[in-house]
Amino acid sequence: MSALSARHVWTYRLLFVLICLVLITLKLLPLNLADRGVPGPDLLLLLAFAWMVRQPAVVPLGILLLVFLLADFLFQRPPGLWTLLVIFASEYLRRRRLAMTEFPFLVEWGAVAIAVMGMVLLNRLVLWILLVDLDPLGLTLVQGIVTIVTYPIVVAVSKYIFGLRKLGPAELEAL
Questions:
Q1: Residue 92 sits in which domain range?
Q2: Are 53 and 89 in contact (CB under 8 A)?
Q3: Claim: this prediction has a pTM higher than 0.85
C-alpha cells in the first residue's frame, strides 16, 4: 500500500470517527421539542454500514467497537449488546462485499436491510429474554424500516459530499 493510499485511509478513518462523535452529540442534545410519533433512523449504524461496504479498510473492527460501545454507554442501552450485534452484522456485510461490488445497488441495499432487521429483532429478543421493559413492537419495527429506507440517502451523502466511492473487486483485493 503506498503512502498516499495509507494517508487516504487514515484521513477517512479520522473523518468517520468525527462524524460519529457529531452524530452522538446531536442525538444527546435536547432538540426534540415535540413528539413526532415516528422514530428517526439510526444514522450511526447506517454510516458504519455504508462506509464499510464502500471502503472496508476505512472502518476497522476496533473503531466500530469503540464508537458503538461509547454510544451504548451514552444512550443508556445495555452495554455491549448493540455493539455485539453491529460487529456481527458488519462482518456479515464485510464478507459479502465482493459479491455486492459486482451487482447493482439494490443487492447491497437488500443485504443491509437483512442485517438491520436481523439486528433489531435479535436485540429485541435478547432484551425480552432478560425481562427488560421494551417499547412497543410496532415502534421498534418502524424504526428498523425507517433506518432501511434512509440507507440510500446516507450512501449518496457519503459518495457525493465526502467522496467515498465504492471500490471494485481488483481494488479490494489490493487492500
A1: 3-27+39-174
A2: no
A3: yes
